[in-house]
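Late entry, zinc ion complex.
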Amino acid sequence: MKYFFTYSMLFYCICCTGQSISKNKFIKFENKDSVFEAKLMLFLEEFITDLKEDRDTIRHVDKDHFEKNKIFFGFVSNYSESATYEDENFYQAQLLNCYPIADKTFKIQIGYLGSPDSSEPIVHTIFNLKAMETDAGFVFESHFEENLRSWHRRKLDNIVFRYEDSFDESRAWKFEKFNKEFAELNDVDPLQFEYIKGINPHHVLELFGIDYAVAYNGEVRGLGHATEDHFVSGINEEGYEHDLIHNYYGQINKGKETYRPWEEGICAYYAGSWGDSFAEMMTKFANFMDKNPETNLWEKYEEKFRIGKHDIRFLCNGLLVKKLVEEVGYSSIVDVLECGKKGEEYFKKLNNYIELDEHNFHSTIMDLLQNIQ
Ligand SMILES: [Zn+2]
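Prediction complete; structure with ligand written out below:
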């Protein structure tokens, strides 16, 4: 009885101070009383508050479990803001379902939902968790490790590959070779990690226990997420060099202000993008310029124009990266990377190596593009 009052009072306080999670109006807690419900909502409230604020530790999640599942928790964190609706608290968490799967263990489903004033509600994410009831309350866990349990494991030097069905060893060695070469280029040790080979983004979301994520509508390629020791990809390949480069820079440049469109140029040059090699990207770029000769590349750069899936800024920077690597050396492209988060010193840095400004940008890039063909 003591617990009932404690939880009811706390829950009452949360409701009065603005809550982080609500309940689906039609939810049923089979054979459970209101104490159970109040306790679950109280623990979920603290758990969701920490996710929303993207904290480094999440209440009611075991520390070890959190470390091993950082990619999953990253996926469901920091969710509330909508750029489209210009609202920091557009998406709200809701408990959609809760049912027992074992003794004192429940599967719970949570949705992040937004309601614009004048149109249909919008679903941001729907995901599942395991909730284990303890004497103190609840502990929450991701289904990720459980879903990987039956997967194969194969270690090649620095990388442990995890895969469900097929494994292409020569592709995997190519990835590990690139891992060593890129480490050497940066004068660091090769990264060591577990690489989880997903078929496509939806397959990876399923592994995470995520039923829906708004960012992956229609996508069949492109998901890559990594922490220090895990790398999850959704491209159905034993390697993802493009994202491995991002992982290196993420670790090497921690805390530094780097310019992402330049980093994308580096990734494009060494590893291509969106399933195209650098050469294929350049062919598409050249074809577009043939058909649209009136295009001014600096104007399009500032517009963040896209040629198919390829951002024009990354195509142009890929060409500049190629020139600098070939004529000056790798250190020059790393130097340009630190030209400010918004590229404030883009031309200033580049001018140490090549005469470039917004007036000769178009002709310089066109020359580089024509010379590559
Ligand atoms: Zn990229």
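Residues 2-139 form one domain. Will revisit in the morning.
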